[in-house]
Design goal:
338 residues, alpha/beta, D-Maltodextrin-Binding Protein, domain 2, 2 domains, three-stranded antiparallel β-sheet, 12 helices
């Protein structure tokens, strides 16, 4: 028996609707390293912000010790979104051959007027009064080729010092920097929130220079994903970025500061007092890094940062960041919230 045409059309529509409803939400694994500082660590902590979570997508925050394992995970399709430093992006594209990486969002920027810039500390009673006084000294960096490490080397070059001959570099994790300085195992250390706000460090040390003094504004951390994943899953990614921007706006709103401090304390397992008065606030050097409320990165700053990376010999050639960007998803997501 042949069904009427309208009945066939109705069955097709019913089948399509059932298939859509039965479709699994897209899994989006998002990397993070530092609790609170990285959006992925706190995005799901405030109920009601991730409104598409469990519907069109399921976000899975994954902690990494640093960016090199993220690059490997991206290459092996074990991660959808990485939060890379500008220095890691260039390495991933050139050394790992991942030409399909796309910058999709901002996480935070250093050295923006009115916001925090990384500090580099010496002891208060140290005879080191200028960068030139670092000749022959020991410098603690978090990792060779990191954004912070590049800033130190750029500052040395600005002051006529050879980063390979005139100083000695040692590596230390940010939580261990204070001990390195106080115990005089290093003459200069890198400081970043929340560690740079440690009262004991502040009592014992003073900043010699800021990161922005060395390299100007920096697009320090960006979200990146592979172009094939973005093209295949654009609708779900717009939903995800809508939720991410909504979360960013909540955390960046000063009226939510008290609640944000409690969330930061819970996620980091640190006292709330460590975050009170600065986290996500624009208060110059007594506040936090700059974060765009619509999560749109500063591509001009990023281009400048990568050019400096090339000049210091960490990458062979410059990279056109606009070629490796797709901001259409985050821009569409932000428009939904206006």
């Amino acid at each position: 028996m042949r069904l009427p045409q309208f009945a066939v059309a109705g069955l097709i529509a019913l089948f399509a609707a059932g298939a859509t409803q039965g479709a699994e939400p897209l899994k989006i694994r998002v990397a993070w390293v530092v609790p609170v500082s990285n959006w992925a660590s706190i995005m799901l902590e405030k109920p009601g912000l991730a409104r598409h979570q469990g519907k069109s997508y399921v976000m899975e925050p994954i902690r990494f010790q640093g960016t090199p394992p993220m690059i490997t995970a991206l290459a092996n399709n074990e991660l959808e979104i990485a939060d890379l430093a500008f220095s890691s992006l260039a390495v991933a594209i050139q050394n790992a051959g991942m030409d399909d990486l796309r910058i999709i969002a901002d996480e935070f920027q250093d050295g923006v007027e009115g916001s925090y810039s990384d500090e580099f500390f010496v002891l208060k009673d140290s005879p080191i009064r200028s960068v030139k006084d670092l000749k022959g000294k020991v410098i603690a960096s978090n990792a060779v080729g990191s954004g912070v490490d590049i800033a130190i080397r750029a500052m040395l070059h600005k002051n006529g010092l050879d980063d390979k001959k005139d100083v000695t570099f040692v590596e230390a994790a940010f939580p261990n920097m204070k001990a390195m300085l106080i115990e005089k195992k290093a003459d200069l250390i890198a400081g970043a929130p929340p560690f740079s706000f440690d009262p004991q460090l502040r009592a014992a040390a003073r900043p010699l220079f800021l990161q922005k003094d060395a390299i100007g504004p920096s697009q320090m951390i960006i979200w990146v994903a592979r172009s094939g994943f973005l093209q295949k899953n654009r609708a779900a990614m717009v939903d995800f970025m809508e939720d991410a921007v909504r979360a960013a706006r909540f955390y960046l709103d000063p009226k939510n500061h008290e609640e944000v401090v409690q969330i930061a304390s819970k996620v980091s397992r640190q006292p709330a007092a460590l975050f009170k008065g600065w986290v996500f606030l624009k208060k110059g050097q007594s506040g936090d890094f700059y974060r765009d409320v619509n999560m749109v990165p500063n591509l001009d700053a990023l281009q400048s940062n990568i050019k400096l990376q090339q000049q210091l010999g960490f990458i062979k050639t410059n990279i056109d960041v606009r070629k490796h960007s797709d901001l259409s998803i985050v821009q569409e997501a932000a428009k939904r919230l206006k």
